[in-house]
Amino acid sequence: MLLVVFLTSARADFLRADFAPLTLRPRTNAPAIFDIKLHRAGAGLLEGALEITFEAGGAVVFRQRTQDLTLAAGTQSFRVITPPLPPHESYTGTEARLRFVTKTAAVDLGRFPVEAASRGARNFVIAVCDGRSAGVRDVALWQSLRLESFFPTSPNADKPIATSPAFLLPEDFPANPLALFAFDLVLLDGDGFALLREKQLVALTRWVEAGGSLGVLPGRGLKDEHVRFLNGFASGKNSAPFQITDTGEFVAGGEPRFLRGGLGRVVVASHPEEAALATPAWRQAAMFLWKFRKAGPAIVNRYGRPWDPAIELAGTEAREEARRRRAEIEQFLTTLLPNSTRLISPGTLALILAGFLIVVGPLDWFVLGVVRRRRWTWIAFPLASAGFTALVIFEAGRALGHEDHRSALIVTDVGPGGRVLRESRFELLLSARNRDATTEIQHAFAVPTLLAAQTSGNRASPGDLEPVGFSGQMGLRFTMRQQLRQWTPQFNRITSLEAPDDASGVPWAEVEAGIVGSKEARRHLAVQARFAEIAKGHPALDFALLRGGGVVTGSGGHWPAKHLEAFCSPAAFGISELIARTAPDAAGNFDDLPLLDPNELDEWLLVISRRTPDGVHLYRRLFRTDDQ
Q1: Which of 90, 112, 126, 382 would you label with 416, given CA atoms 20 to 30 Å apart?
Q2: How many whole angstroms separate alpha carbon 242 and alpha carbon 569?
Q3: Entry pTM
């Protein structure tokens, strides 16, 4: 949609905007990417910033302001990353309002409809980079990877599950791994892989290790950095290195190779012919990329009938299970609240009340009687009431304290050697007064996440607070501004791939050498015994060992087992019944936190909990005992 707005000025400027999402339907509960073009005709330069206001059902969800722009005559194109868009009752319920704000004026650039997920539905996105134009693109290739292709009952885009493509040119492919949070899968085909630069390959590596899924179909024109990129995922059973010819052509290895990198998945294969897209080998590759549970194929056609997303995603049992699971997670988070609240002492209250009665009683009568002005009691009594009310408020504030309370639950996922793969910080702000809070964020995503008790639809129920505002470049450096209400808890999630080095004190090398590197690793009782031995040697650490659907053993820890399971194991309903874990999304619904496949007995998760001065820190290490 093109909207034209005239800027009335001495230069008779002409300004209009094009605003379009990178894909038709952005990924549910994940950051979204939009392409913006500003067209200007006029003399000189125009300085200002672009302000985007997202509204759902007529209510403002959040505002985002870009960094300062300088517009000359012509067209300026750029991309913006936004926080996750909230689900709404219909696909047409969300829109974006654009304004160009200068020092002296704000130019309205109009409203643009935005496709957001409806309640009970899930939108998935596959990023396709093939270096081809639209006319020669292999449409059947990415369509064979659509998640809904596994469900014969839901072949259309208006069903509860819909997968959309996002076509990227190699030169426009993100070099920031956080930008890849907008996608579930990335598919690199031919030149789309060969033309990627080293910084883009580094970003892909970090995103995969954080939980992304990548399909690579190499062709010609490859360089050494492309081979190093692929070999970085070749380990364990898949340790055979990849090779290219002297002319830069990929040496095909027959069947697709299934690789694991950190928390993510990689499939490397030759470009398949259209007939091969329907073969069991390619279907297995698609299931691997989507991180299907080990029991996923059986669930798709359980009891002799196809799995029905409409029932599984929006059914009553699914909603009840979702609420129960979220309540467990929130109970886990609310342990960060202060353990107790100081109240005004009874003696102080008694003194204040006695003083008030003396002032409005005998003192008022005798003093005003002496000066023969008892009619002034209509002035003295309200003043005394206001004064003692202020005194009670002052004492209450002094008892509760004037300092803000800030604490955090940090979930750090580590890889081999304790190398940090990603970190999610759930920060609690408990303000001593009504105020605006500003948080500076670098190389991370930050989104508010409301507790269920604070949520009514998409908006917080208490009060008419201003919507959250973001200013700057999301994912690189920006500011989050939000209003805080006195003594009302506010949780924010901050997700980063550039977390500090591991400082847990966990002997990761000892764990890996004693468990994964042991010849007895497949003997599960030996794994438990080995962990118990390590725990005894490090009594300062509280640990839990999870496998399948729950906690196998532990040293006590700070948290009940059901809370750890809610954080680490996928739910047994909806899309989580099929997918063990999703690509990172940085949203406040915790969908990307579970890591375990309940049906995969060779998959283990070690969770270490440590108290910190401002909360709790969880370290998680996912490993497989069969990958040696």
Answers
A1: 126
A2: 34
A3: 0.85
